[in-house]
Amino acid sequence: MTVRVQAEDFDIGVEIDALTSGNPRIGGIASFMGVVRAEGGDQAISAMTLEHYPGMTEKKLAEIEAEAHGRWPLEASLIIHRHGRLEPGDRIVLVVTCAKSRGPALAACEFLIDWLKTKAPFWKLEESDQGAEWVDARESDDEAASKWGE
Amino acid sequence: MKLLYFAWLRTKIGVASEEVTPPETVVNVDGLIEWLATRGPGYAEALANRDQVRVAVNQDYVVGDQPLKPGDEVALFPPVTGG
């Protein structure tokens, strides 16, 4: 189980290699990667700044990762979330889950990104030609998270 | 008590963190928010819509009736939007 909150970019291939090397029990690897979209609502986004709560962020990510390991038989997992100023196309978040087969890996990966979106203390500030605006939380994210129960 | 503010709560209140000593009548999170809202126009505006304020005490989410004690770290912020 690994959690990293960082300003730096990441390389999904390097991360998966590092996570899986030396574990021959792994047979299925699922991943989710989020990148900055060029539009928010109906306007063009020039950049986005991710603010977070250092300390609580790592704590919450570790908690949801532990919850995933309690629900599915995972061999390994990784969550990376970036903070700071990012531009369209930049990578924001990576979730990787490894199991003996695809079932638990795919389910745990979806669970982790759904819970991360509603529980990890990050806030997005979008920049457009209208100025900078804090992004509102979306009801659809709450609904996606609630399907996994508490 | 250490207070932390994030996102638009931080920009409206004007500071990222501060040390406060609330009056003894403040015993829980709801009471703290009511007291903070009286400290100035920025606070009043930031805390006007209670539905949009999430609270963590010592880095765990809590609800309004959560009791508070002097050494607590209390963070106030809008609903999260990561991922």
What does this structure look like?
The complex is a heterodimer of chains A (150) and B (83). Chain A has 150 residues and is α+β, with helices and mostly antiparallel strands. Chain A has helices at residues 12-20, 56-71, 102-119, 139-146; strands at residues 2-6, 28-35, 39-40, 43-44, 47-52, 74-82, 84-86, 91-99, 122-128, 131-134. Chain A has one domain: Molybdopterin biosynthesis MoaE subunit (Aldehyde Oxidoreductase, domain 3, Alpha-Beta Complex), CATH 3.90.1170. Chain A is built from four helices and ten strands. In chain A, helix 2 (56-71) runs antiparallel to helix 3 (102-119) and helix 3 (102-119) packs across helix 4. The longest helix of chain A is centred in the last third of the chain and has 18 residues, at 102-119. Chain B has one domain: Ubiquitin-like (UB roll), CATH 3.10.20.30. Chain B is 25% helix and 23% strand. In chain B, strands 2-1-5-3-4 form a five-stranded mixed sheet. The chains are: A alpha+beta (150), B alpha+beta (83). Chain A binds chain B through residues 34, 50-53, 55-56, 59-60, 81, 92-93, 113, 116-125, 134-138, 141, and chain B through 4, 6-8, 56, 59, 61, 75, 77-83.
